[in-house]
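Q: I'm building a small set of examples for a reading group on sequence design. Run inverse folding on the following structure and report the sequence directly after it, with nothing in between.
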């Protein structure tokens, strides 16, 4: 009874206007220093990341409390009556209780795709040269900057340590990304349509050593007092 009263459905945030929206890039930073980059439009970003989801319960609070009260009283009387049952019935009750709890644990351990229907979203993974594994936070941050082609989220979210040396490193990373994209676009303009599609499909990062660049910034006398 309590489970029936707790029945709910998920409500995602929907856009109320039909205006054209630009593409959006969502960057998720994990506590271990890893990043997940999701390229999508604003509508999907709002549904999944920007706005909190809401649970629409089938029953209101008053009815749910009444059902919970009736269910609790029923359970209490059931336990009292169980003391007057025969041994086979008590064993059957205990077995049913164990089976139900086992089923709850099994259902909770099932993969998430068995619980949620995500068929309305088309997910395509992008693989870049160098792979996803990173030994340091600096390399992971550099790859995230290169893929998003922006450092605005780094500065606004204070993702990098707050110091003049790190600020200089972020500025250098932004300049490298801009120069790489500019050179890439000039190369594409000189190619025919077939080769243009081939070059556009290549996922490569700028040839830059973020570790050495950060070392130079930290060792620079200019930032010796505030690294």
């Amino acid at each position: 009874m309590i489970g029936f009263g707790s029945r709910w459905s998920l409500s995602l945030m929907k856009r109320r206007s039909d205006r054209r929206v630009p593409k959006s890039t969502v960057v998720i930073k994990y506590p271990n220093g890893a990043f997940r980059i999701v390229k999508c439009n604003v509508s999907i970003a709002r549904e999944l990341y920007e706005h909190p989801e809401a649970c629409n319960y089938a029953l209101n609070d008053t009815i749910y409390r009444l059902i919970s009260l009736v269910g609790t009283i029923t359970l209490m009387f059931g336990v009292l009556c169980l003391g007057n049952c025969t041994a086979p019935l008590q064993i059957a009750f205990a077995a049913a209780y164990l089976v139900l709890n086992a089923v709850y644990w099994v259902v909770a351990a099932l993969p998430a795709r068995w619980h949620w229907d995500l068929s309305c979203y088309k997910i395509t993974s992008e693989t870049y040269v160098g792979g996803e594994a990173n030994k340091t936070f600096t390399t992971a941050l550099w790859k995230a900057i290169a893929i998003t082609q922006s450092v605005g989220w780094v500065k606004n979210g204070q993702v990098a340590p707050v110091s003049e040396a790190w600020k200089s490193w972020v500025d250098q990373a932004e300049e490298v990304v801009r120069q790489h994209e500019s050179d890439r676009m000039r190369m594409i303009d000189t190619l025919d349509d077939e080769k243009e599609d081939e070059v556009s499909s290549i996922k490569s990062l700028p040839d830059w050593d973020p570790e050495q660049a950060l070392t130079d910034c930290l060792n620079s006398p200019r930032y010796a007092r505030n690294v």
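DSSP finds nine helices and four strands in the chain.
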